[in-house]
């Protein structure tokens, strides 16, 4: 029962009461109590060395951080060189230490007269390199008249690569044309990437990968900014082509070519960035639904191939994935918490180091509610997805149920020797809005109270809380979500409460963010209590960074057995935690 032991300063709590406060369901205590999560792998962060940073984009503040519970954010590529600087300053000021980059996909293309097509038309992105395909085939035939190009792929990026990208410089090359730089790769269809570079001894059919890149390297700039602002960067792996018959799955026909491209990129990154403190790992962007069916999903083969390459070329750099969940009862693909936990296990065994499931509240596929709220009507913002109904009717379980089950499986996997972390990806948007945050799409602005509620539901079980995403969703609307967070960053957020005793005295232990002094409040049918915090700000190294522990004496005998108690926290300035914990006494 490791959850019932906690260090308070230098003293170990002397005893555990026979009755505990259980979060949040009806099962026996021994099942309900999760094993303790270990600290995050990503502790070795770059540290700013100056108070401010100045360049052509302005002067940027590197100190004065006000830390929020969310410490990582997705960002999108930008053509404006100053945009990322401002984004990383804002993320740094909010206490963020991680950014995850949205990336690009490998695409299979058809060719007519040597011209690259897209949806039946000539792709303007490759018109500056309109002779590239013909020249590649001519070079192959010069080596052996029987050589030919079998399949053609394209990959767009705003990066610029070094010589580590090429395996066979005699056949592969950089092509500068117009404002772009193109890279021509000639590869074997099976992904073997033969190091002999023998194109002449026998005829062969090869894949052409044509990369449309940039004159300057965006990743190098982003890593430099990461070093400056004390932020780790997770660049994106190339996204696999989708199966035309099932778009939610990767197409295994293109696995060989994807494997080669991934290997080449990792070799180049390894040559240039292996020792950069700001390179935290890599993001696997092909999105999957967590569930029992994931066990037999062929996409995991593609995951495993890419992840093996990363481990070979950049050992110690974890792969991060962020699958989504769907808890809706009225759709055939809705999954229970235990089914989602099975999918978590399958993902971890593919070589993933960090699994950050989308809480899926932003899409309306999972709801934020406590066990005693199953009969409550769903949040009006969820009604476009599930209708006017109750939480219990709409969903198989709440956000907290899903993360609890995944945390149990995660700890089992760690015991089996798998190095895997569970993060929470708290979605920072609403299912729909009259004013969407993006030019295309319907997702709209959310607010800080809803983010706080999601953190309260997930924080107990994870090693880190991140959010999709900073670009657009934290910056749109009036006031922008980033400004709401900045103005209310010190509001307490409770994530856990248990009954404990110290030196024979009954009490309650609360874990959460910003629990520095203030008051713990308890409310139950027919009673209430306000308890000044006397022991606080004790870091809990076993939980997400920023979570501390507060303990206060409290006589639990005054609370009737089986009733639900709302446990809140009030700061010395009078700020109440937005989302009180719903707990109850259980033997």
Automatic annotation (TrEMBL):
Protein name: DUF4434 domain-containing protein
Pfam families hit by this protein: DUF4434
Transmembrane segments: none
Domain DUF4434: 211-474
Region (Disordered): 29-52
InterPro entries xrefs: DUF4434
Biased segments, Polar residues type: 32-51
